[in-house]
């Protein structure tokens, strides 16, 4: 029986992530990953039950890392919207690909097939989600628009990620300052 190597597992996850970015979710195969990592296909199954398990873990690892960044920036902070947007922007300087991977998953029907939200990400859904929680709390306090806080969180998330990706992937939005994006989102959230 082969022994698991955490470095090898991370290499497989990172290679799968790179292939997802290059070829899309449906272009990913165990054989392509094995070839790139220079291991046999059977060795991948030491770390992952199947391709779906591998996909879940790619998504989950990226999402948890991003959630940690956002949680650190927004927890117990009255200026949570601005801090969330700034944190996403700064994090994207080094980790823009994580946001692209998250977007690919979120925009794909594979989320239903993999049941990611129902299974492996249950702890991140609902009000415990560090993106949604400050919005839930602010709506409850009457500080922002009285509507579904998850919708408000999605608005802020999408604006922040779109702005970050446009800047860090050289779409050149330098004429639009991050403070302008923050002002637009905060104006949309006003009660």
TrEMBL record:
<dbReference type="InterPro" id="IPR009057">
    <property type="entry name" value="Homeodomain-like_sf"/>
</dbReference>
<feature type="DNA-binding region" description="H-T-H motif">
    <location>
        <begin position="29"/>
        <end position="48"/>
    </location>
</feature>
<dbReference type="InterPro" id="IPR001647">
    <property type="entry name" value="HTH_TetR"/>
</dbReference>
<protein>
    <submittedName>
        <fullName>TetR/AcrR family transcriptional regulator</fullName>
    </submittedName>
</protein>
<keyword id="KW-0238">DNA-binding</keyword>
<dbReference type="GO" id="GO:0003677">
    <property type="term" value="F:DNA binding"/>
</dbReference>
<dbReference type="Pfam" id="PF00440">
    <property type="entry name" value="TetR_N"/>
</dbReference>
<dbReference type="InterPro" id="IPR050624">
    <property type="entry name" value="HTH-type_Tx_Regulator"/>
</dbReference>
<feature type="domain" description="HTH tetR-type">
    <location>
        <begin position="6"/>
        <end position="66"/>
    </location>
</feature>
């Amino acid at each position: 029986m082969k022994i698991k190597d955490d470095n090898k597992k991370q290499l497989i996850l990172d290679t799968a992530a790179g292939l997802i970015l290059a070829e899309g979710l449906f272009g990913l195969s165990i054989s392509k990953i094995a070839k790139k990592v220079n291991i046999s296909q059977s060795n991948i199954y030491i770390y992952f039950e199947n391709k779906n398990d591998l996909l879940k873990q790619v998504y989950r690892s990226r999402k948890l890392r991003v959630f940690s960044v956002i949680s650190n920036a927004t927890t117990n902070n009255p200026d949570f919207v601005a801090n969330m947007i700034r944190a996403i922007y700064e994090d994207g300087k080094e980790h823009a690909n994580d946001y692209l991977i998250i977007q690919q998953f979120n925009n794909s029907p594979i989320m239903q097939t993999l049941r990611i939200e129902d299974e492996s990400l249950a702890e991140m859904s609902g009000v415990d989600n560090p993106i949604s929680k400050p919005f839930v709390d602010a709506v409850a306090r009457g500080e922002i628009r009285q509507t579904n806080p998850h919708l408000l969180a999605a608005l802020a998330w999408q604006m922040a990620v779109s702005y970050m990706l446009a800047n860090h992937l050289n779409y050149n939005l330098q004429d639009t300052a991050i403070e302008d994006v923050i002002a637009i989102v905060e104006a949309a959230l006003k009660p």
